[in-house]
Amino acid sequence: MPYVNIKITKTGATVEQKAELIKGATELLQRVLNKNPATTFVIIEEVETDNWGVGGETVTARNAKAAPIT
Q1: How many angstroms separate the first and last alpha carbons of the chain?
Q2: pLDDT per residue rounded down to tens, the chain (70 residues)
Q3: What are the sequence ranges of the domains in the chain?
Q4: 3-class secondary-structure state, position 49
Q5: Residue 32: strand, helix, or coil
Q6: What distance in Å separates the CA atoms of residue 41 and residue 47, rounded to the nearest whole number?
Q7: Distance (Å, rounded) from C-alpha 67 to C-alpha 17?
């Protein structure tokens, strides 16, 4: 009974994109490991960018630096 936990930042993934991730992860486990799709669980967790750090800073801060000045 495979369990896949996908964590992404909460930056606007659509319902369709999430459905594609779930389908793709399920198909991958079926193809590579011969796992039954009916017993494969895929969970998507969306994390606020203030709660996700990379390189010693939050994703919010990193995104602010990358934003063009208008």
Answers
A1: 50
A2: 999 999 999 998 999 999 999 999 999 999 999 999 999 999 999 999 999 999 999 999 999 988 665 5
A3: 3-66
A4: helix
A5: helix
A6: 19
A7: 24
pTM value is: 0.84
DSSP alpha helix (H) spans, 1-70: 15-33, 59-66
Does residue 40 sit in helix, strand or coil?
coil
Which of 67, 3, 63 lies closest to 33, judged by CA? 3
What residues act catalytically? 2
As beta bridge partners, residue 3 has 41
Question: What is the second-level CATH architecture of the domain 3-66?
Answer: 2-Layer Sandwich (3.30)
**Close Cβ partners of 69 (under 8 Å, ≥ 6 residues apart):** none
